[in-house]
């Protein structure tokens, strides 16, 4: 479906990273900075305006590489944003991710006390994301970012995480990623699912009506909030060896291993969705962008094709909740970006090699609480909405070794018990990605 249904997004004012998906293949880097001097902080913002691309579509291949900039609450405070404006931001953004860790299920090994420094600390003020199709263009764009903070003694680079697409083109767990994204009205980006009409622009970009028909609350003054969006960044360590060991212990053959993995994720490793290919992998289907997201769940209410507790179905139930009318799934849709970091664990290896690998998860949306936090707490960490209160997402839920996962099948369902945690949170933060005009406003604060 077209993504230009009447609304006119001010694309020249919106950061490109808010609307454009990452290239494939890709290389990238995430930088976290601290502002120690307010004047240098504003000068950095002024310089960054010149290197941040807008959301206007371009046929120039050079625009496949771009910089996106976000600020934490503490970062905006360090820049000298007036207190009434700071108070107008969403409460969860003001609190920060570490303060909401228990609510998010970041406990135990994933709790902030174990996070990688400086993630989750008040020192994190600015995030700069740089993504590109290849290393040469990445270095060119990264050099622009480096020059922006060069010779500014009041700016400190605290953290850098490099990322790149694995040679397989898949995640560290071995699954094709980045298939399903919603379209946004006015963005010019087409929908990946022809059954899903584009989201109202206000679900992703502030200053436009959202799915409720209302204008979402946004920071004040208007120049600061309009055309901006919230960004969630999380570093997620994946325990690939533990995942493989669990499947090996529960399966009699390699074919059964692949099937159990597909049931847990909701797709085969090559990207073929279970609703379209429930019994066997179909690499041709998985690699066809015209077909690999062209499905719904409504004709599979009990999950015989795709379990209702599978990761992909939990993260986006599509039409599966339409029958009871209690939840409007469109209010919880969001743009998700995922990039891999660390080396892949060679195929067939079952022992952990001690290397850090995983996913940098990025959320983009206008509502941190009812989009990211709702999906994380209500759909991924809990099983009440699918009628299984004791079950969490089998891949990214808050598994503690006691949860289970049900696979409906005839004549008797199968239940996998004692799922260990396969993903550990290494840290993260909530950011606000302002418009280009808002960045100029920040740079010129009195």
TrEMBL record:
It comes from the Bacteria. Pfam families: DyP_N. Its cofactor is heme b. Residues 270-298 are annotated as: Disordered. Residues 66-146 form the DyP dimeric alpha+beta barrel domain. Keywords: Iron, Metal-binding, Oxidoreductase, Peroxidase. GO terms for molecular function: peroxidase activity. InterPro entries: Dimeric_a/b-barrel (IPR011008), DyP_N (IPR049509), Dyp_peroxidase (IPR006314). Belongs to the DyP-type peroxidase family. PANTHER family: BLR4509 PROTEIN, DEFERROCHELATASE/PEROXIDASE. NCBIfam families: Dyp_perox_fam. This is Dyp-type peroxidase.
């Amino acid at each position: 479906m077209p993504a230009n249904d009447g609304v006119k997004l001010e694309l020249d004012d919106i950061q490109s990273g808010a609307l454009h998906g990452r290239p494939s293949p890709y290389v990238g880097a995430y930088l976290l900075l601290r502002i120690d001097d307010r004047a240098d902080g504003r000068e950095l913002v002024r310089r960054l305006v010149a290197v941040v691309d807008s959301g206007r579509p371009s046929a120039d291949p050079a625009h496949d590489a771009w910089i996106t900039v976000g600020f934490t609450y503490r970062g905006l405070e360090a820049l000298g944003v007036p207190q009434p404006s700071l108070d107008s931001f969403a409460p969860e953004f003001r609190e920060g991710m570490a303060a909401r860790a228990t609510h998010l299920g970041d406990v135990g090994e994933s709790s902030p006390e174990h996070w990688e420094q400086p993630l989750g600390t008040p020192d994190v003020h600015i995030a700069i994301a740089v993504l590109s199709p290849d290393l040469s263009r990445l270095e060119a764009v990264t050099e622009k970012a480096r020059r922006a903070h060069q010779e500014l003694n009041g700016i400190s680079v605290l953290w850098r995480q490099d990322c790149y697409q694995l040679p397989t083109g898949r995640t560290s767990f071995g699954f094709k990623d980045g298939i399903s994204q919603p379209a946004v009205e006015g963005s010019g980006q087409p929908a990946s699912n022809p059954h899903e009409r584009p989201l109202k622009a206000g679900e992703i970009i502030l200053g436009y009506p959202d799915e409720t028909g209302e204008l979402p609350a946004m920071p004040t003054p208007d120049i600061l909030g309009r055309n901006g969006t919230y960004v969630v960044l999380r570093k997620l360590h994946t325990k690939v060896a533990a995942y493989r060991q669990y499947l090996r212990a529960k399966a009699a053959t390699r074919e059964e291993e692949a099937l159990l993995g597909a049931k847990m994720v909701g797709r085969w490793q090559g990207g073929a969705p279970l609703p379209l290919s429930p019994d066997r992998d179909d690499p041709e289907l998985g690699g066809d962008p015209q077909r690999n997201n062209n499905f719904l769940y409504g004709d599979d209410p009990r999950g015989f094709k795709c379990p209702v507790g599978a990761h992909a179905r939990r993260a986006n139930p599509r039409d599966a909740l339409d029958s009871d009318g209690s939840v409007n799934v469109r209010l919880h849709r969001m743009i998700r970006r995922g990039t891999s970091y660390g080396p892949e664990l060679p195929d067939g290896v079952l022992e952990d090699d001690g290397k850090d690998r995983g996913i940098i998860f990025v959320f983009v949306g206008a509502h941190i609480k009812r989009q990211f936090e709702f999906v994380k707490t209500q759909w991924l960490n809990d099983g009440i909405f699918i009628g299984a209160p004791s079950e969490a997402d089998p891949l990214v839920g808050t598994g503690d070794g006691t949860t289970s996962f049900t696979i409906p099948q005839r004549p008797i369902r199968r239940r996998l018990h004692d799922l260990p945690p396969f993903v550990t949170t290494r840290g993260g933060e909530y950011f606000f990605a302002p418009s280009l005009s808002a960045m100029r406003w920040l740079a010129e604060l009195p």
